[in-house]
Amino acid sequence: MGNFVCPTTGSSLDTYTCAGQSVWPCWCQSGTYSGTPNSFEQGTCSLSCPAGEYNPGSGCITCDAGKFSSEGSSSCSSCNVGQYSGSASASCSDCPAGKYFVNSATGVESSACSMCTAGTYTSSPASSTCTVCPGDLRLARPHSLNLEPAYSDNEEGSASCSTCPDGEVSPSGATLCSTCPAGYECVGGTTTPCALGQYSEGGSDCGPCEKGHSCPGGTDQVPCRQGSYQPDTSQTKCESCPAGKH
């Protein structure tokens, strides 16, 4: 019998070898191919598919978007969550900080990763979600021991949140800080109730309660009602007028 002409696969990379006096071609091992298509000579399967392609035994095939391969691979691997790749990729790319993963099967960052919305952030690359900027829980629950500082961010695609300036505070997920409420002082993003005998009108530090007022703590100062008085500062209650006086 004569030699068998090795068939082609429609590409320049043949995946068969033909030994002398062969009748049927022989498949190359997965991950390799022969560089001698249409030849009477004996082929060798020493050539590997390049990175970004794979050979399952039927020729080199391009890896789809969202997958990658190294040289000589017999299959493609999927990108990890938070990563993306185009077709024929040798590796995957991370979604950058300030963005979160949406779709791995694209080689374009703008469609693979979305910017964190205002009031949220992610400081790490390859993130699948964004984190809500924390707010001061003391403001929502005055007796809470949680003094988590308040943050905000009014820009999309943030890699971090900004601490509210002194005299301001924010709830969780805020895009802007607001004026510290009456009866509190806000320093370094943390909201603290005014102590007994002190007060604040909002947006300022706590100060001593004025004469003629009471300051039970955590409020603005309260004027003494008719029939009561307070001659001293930093007091928590007013005194009743004695008999014969008003």
UniProtKB/TrEMBL annotation:
* Gene3D superfamilies reported in the protein's UniProt record: Tumor Necrosis Factor Receptor, subunit A, domain 2 (2.10.50.10)
Instruction: Identify the stretch(es) annotated as Disordered.
Output: 226-246
| Superkingdom as given in the UniProt entry | Eukaryota
SMART domains this protein is in?
Answer: Ephrin_rec_like
Biased-composition ranges for Polar residues? 227-238
This protein's name? Tyrosine-protein kinase ephrin type A/B receptor-like domain-containing protein
